[in-house]
Design brief:
It is built from 2 helices and 2 strands; from the N terminus they run H-E-E-H. It is an alpha+beta fold. The protein has a domain of 38 residues. Strand 1 and strand 2 form a beta hairpin.
Length: 68
């Protein structure tokens, strides 16, 4: 027996705000950019060799787009 046979309808789960899910928390120390040393959007307890601030990440993207 399906949900439609019983007269019930399937409930659709609420939409997930993916931007909010990917947005880092606003509190706590931030990791430093590996290029310029400015704070990044990433938490300090999760540094990476490719941790870049928004400006350096944008500049890196521009370099990649032009190297085609």
């Amino acid at each position: 027996m399906t949900d439609n046979d019983s007269g019930r309808s399937c409930e659709v789960p609420p939409a997930v705000d993916t931007a909010a899910a990917l947005r880092p928390a606003a509190d706590g120390p931030r990791a430093d950019c590996v290029r310029c040393g400015e704070p990044t959007e990433l938490p300090a307890d999760h540094p990476d060799a490719t941790t870049l601030c928004p400006l350096c990440a944008w500049q890196q993207g521009q370099r990649g787009a032009c190297s085609g």
